[in-house]
Specification:
Number of domains: 2
Largest sheet: 3 strands, antiparallel
Mean pLDDT: 81
Shape: globular
Order of helices and strands: HEEEHHEEH
Helix content: 25-40%
Radius of gyration: 20 Å
Structural class: alpha+beta
Number of helices: 4
Length: 169
C-alpha cells in the first residue's frame, strides 16, 4: 500500500519541487500527528522541533523541514503560528533574556502570546534542563502558567503606561 506519491521529481518553472512546497504549506496549516512511519520512504509533510543536550550539557535545538532538511537554532517555532512567534523570538531573544529559567519562561510566554488566545488553558510548556549530568524534565502546571501570564500582562501594562507618559511630555 502506497502512503506517499512517488512522483516527487516534478519541478516548478523556477526549479522548486512541487511536492516539497505543498508539504511546507501543509505544515503551516496542519495539526499535530502522533506518528508518521512508512518503511523506505521519507515522511514528507512533517516539521518537528527536536531539543536535547550534548554530552557536555550544551542545549541543542534542531528543526526538520518537510523537504527532509534540518537546521540548528537557538530558538524557533513550528506549526500554524510559527511566523509571528519566530519573528518575535528573532527580535527579542538574547543571552540576557535566557540567563535563567524565570526570564526564559517569560520570553516563551510572550512569544506564544503572539498567536495563542489569552488564558493558561491554551498553553502547555515543558522545561528540560541538565543539572549535574542528570536530565530534568517537567511540565508546568496550569497555575504556574497562569502566574507567568499575569506577570507578563503586568509588565505589558506598565510598559504601555510608561510609553504613554513619555509621549505626553
Amino acid at each position: 500500500m502506497n502512503r506517499y506519491d512517488r512522483a516527487i521529481t516534478i519541478f516548478s518553472p523556477d526549479g522548486h519541487l512541487f511536492q516539497v512546497e505543498y508539504a511546507q504549506e501543509a505544515v503551516k496549516k496542519g495539526s499535530t500527528a502522533r506518528f508518521t512511519q512508512s518503511p523506505g520512504r521519507r515522511p514528507f509533510g512533517i516539521s518537528m522541533l527536536i531539543g536535547g543536550f550534548d554530552h557536555d550539557g550544551t542545549p541543542r535545538l534542531f528543526k526538520t523541514e518537510p523537504s527532509g532538511a534540518y537546521y540548528e537554532y537557538v530558538a524557533n517555532s513550528t506549526g500554524r503560528g510559527e511566523k509571528p512567534v519566530r519573528e518575535y523570538l528573532e527580535e527579542h531573544y538574547s543571552e540576557e533574556n535566557t540567563a535563567d529559567e524565570a526570564t526564559t519562561l517569560k520570553l516563551v510566554v510572550k512569544s506564544l502570546a503572539q498567536v495563542v488566545p489569552p488564558g493558561s488553558q491554551n498553553i502547555e510548556i515543558a522545561v528540560m534542563k541538565k543539572v549535574n549530568d542528570e536530565l530534568q524534565q517537567r511540565v508546568l502546571s496550569t497555575d504556574e502558567i497562569e502566574a507567568l501570564l499575569k506577570v507578563v500582562e503586568a509588565e505589558r501594562v506598565a510598559a504601555e503606561a510608561e510609553e504613554a507618559a513619555t509621549k505626553k511630555k
